[in-house]
Design a protein that fits this description.
The strands form 2 sheets. Strands 2, 4, 5, 6, 9, 10 and 11 form a 7-stranded mixed sheet that branches. A 4-stranded antiparallel sheet has the order 1-3-8-7, with no helix packed on it. It contains no helices and 11 strands. By secondary structure, it is mainly β.
Length: 124
């Protein structure tokens, strides 16, 4: 069971990045998936979550309207499209899945499988 996050990098304020989370060893279609982020010296925070079918999503207020989470179950992937990026979006981004169909808040304890982080740096 493995989640692999990718797509991070440097970007200027106002720019866009697309993060991907690829699952291997299990079928992601049964599980809710979320993106979290952690900036230096700060706690890990939830950013976006999508239920197993993709029919329902939820976002942190800080990213609502700028980030979009989506999934491609046949490809076993989840994507986070990040637009209008701000310096405060700088963080290590992680994808995580939970052994339930639905999202249920953004407590890290609710999630069972984690990918390694991918670093997003927003700076001019």
């Amino acid at each position: 069971v493995q989640l692999q996050a990718s797509g991070g990098g440097p970007v200027q304020p106002g720019g866009s990045l697309r993060l991907s989370c690829a699952a291997s060893g299990f079928a992601l279609k049964y599980y809710a998936v979320a993106w979290f982020r952690q900036a230096p010296g700060k706690e890990r925070e939830g950013v976006a979550c999508i239920r197993n079918s993709g029919s329902s999503t939820s976002y942190a207020k800080s990213v609502e309207g700028r980030f979009t989470i989506s999934r491609d179950n046949p490809k076993n992937t989840v994507t986070l499209q990040m637009n209008s990026l701000k310096p405060e979006d700088t963080a290590e981004y992680y994808c995580a899945s939970r052994r339930y169909e639905l999202c249920d808040g953004f407590s890290p304890n609710q999630y069972d499988y984690w990918g390694q982080g991918t670093l997003v740096t927003v700076s001019s």
